[in-house]
Amino acid sequence: MVYSFLLAAAVISGPVANALSNGLAVTPPMGWNNWNSLGCDVSEDLILSTSQKLVDYGLQDVGYDHVVLDDCWQDVRGEDGYVTPNKQRFPNGMKPISDELHKKRFKYGMYSSAGEMTCARFAGSLDHETKDAENFANWGVDFLKYDNCYHMGRMGTPEISFNRFKVMADALKATGKDIALSLCSWGEDYVHTWGMSIAHSWRMSGDIYDSFTRPDDLCGCDVNNPADPFCIAPGTHCSVLFILNKVAPYSDRSIPGGWNDLDMLEVGQGGMTDEEYKAHFALWAALKSPLMLGNDLREMSAQTLSIINNPAIIALSQDPHGRSAQRVMRNVNVPKDEYGIGETHVWSGKLENGDQVVILLNAAGKDIDIKAPLSEIFVSEGPGGSSKEAKSDWEIWDLWADRMSDADAQSILDAKDLKTKTGIFKKLRWYNSAEKSYAAGLAQGDERLFGKKIGNVKASGALSVKVPRHAAKVYRLRRPGGAAKVHTEL
What we know:
Layout: H1 2-10, E1 30-33, H2 35-38, H3 44-56, E2 66-68, E3 74-77, E4 83-85, H4 95-103, E5 107-113, H5 129-138, E6 143-147, H6 158-174, E7 180-183, H7 195-198, E8 201-203, H8 240-247, E9 259-261, H9 274-286, E10 291-293, H10 302-308, H11 311-317, E11 326-331, E12 344-350, E13 356-362, E14 368-373, H12 374-377, E15 394-398, H13 406-414, H14 418-428, H15 438-444, E16 452-457, E17 462-467, E18 471-478
Parallel strand pairs: 1-2, 1-10, 2-5, 5-6, 6-7, 7-8, 8-9
Antiparallel strand pairs: 3-4, 11-12, 12-13, 13-18, 14-17, 15-16, 15-18
Helix pairs in contact: 5-6, 9-10, 9-11, 10-13
């Protein structure tokens, strides 16, 4: 039986698995989605008022340029085969929302499912892909989150799932409008091997929830072996650590135009500590997951704002090299936390300008001294310390060192008018990716994207850092003399 399943996986038909080359999602998409915090409590007012919050709080200017309406926008599918929006929640329909978002320089995202129903049990798109794609194009949609609920049994091998999702990919293409496709396929049927052929991102696990390490039966795979390829119940309530462990064996599948999607961000929801949220955000950025805020921006704390607006961390996500960090070390022989979980990781990845991102993650029950030799940090360039990178000196730059202060973040949240907010950002000299792209800022050595130099590591040496419980240290290794340039613009 196992042999026949693997054989089916090997004979998938369709195009070679290369990322789409249509100019969409060349870096991981960034934006906001309502589902994690608000679920079905959606409306025209919510979408438009939240888009204004993204502007007011400077989040659009650091890259959050998608506003995505999730499930529950639908009414019924009419006799003509088209789904209509809920008239009470969206009295003016979808096109005026799209027009307003485009005026504000946002991309408009919507939701459906490759099933007979969506996950909230509204009309799904299965066998109605052409008409739904026409709707989305006519409404000015730029991004489609495409879920996996109620698929009428059309899964079980890569070929079956590929063909089901490809129908919508083809229908979107046939409209003639550029619409990025985000598959929410839960990691089923080896999506990481074929998702990039038809989509711009693909979910690689069950749904995240607001916990750092807590196991939950609703996250159906084996908590001790989350990478199990035969998991048949991806589920929900998957912790940050579970998702990291599941993606680790194939984190390298992300390339420009096609991204492993680790699910939406939980930062600011209230179930994790500040250090846990910092680790969550930084790892999602370094692993090139789309950065979709999931918190209610109308009730955001200063601490939350100062995590999600850190340009030095976002620059990892938007780095032009477009390759994910990989886990190079894992240690499970450490003290356990209150959930019986305990492990440490070292994640490492090459960046466009020759820098290296290194993240030391402590998911154990107490503070841990983590040692990461250059031979392991650069193992992808050559094992056993054989690479020239491992034999070089490096500067250590801390990417959280210039995090916005709580006082400054609160002043932005409290400001009553655009002039006041603009003045605060100008005084802080905060990075604005609308004025200078991350690619340009990195190439120019803009200091705001590099954090602060805190030390050095000698050739063939090691990083050795005490990392607090349930936290991560996030560094750029830079070659000596490659320090960031002083930014003097006002």
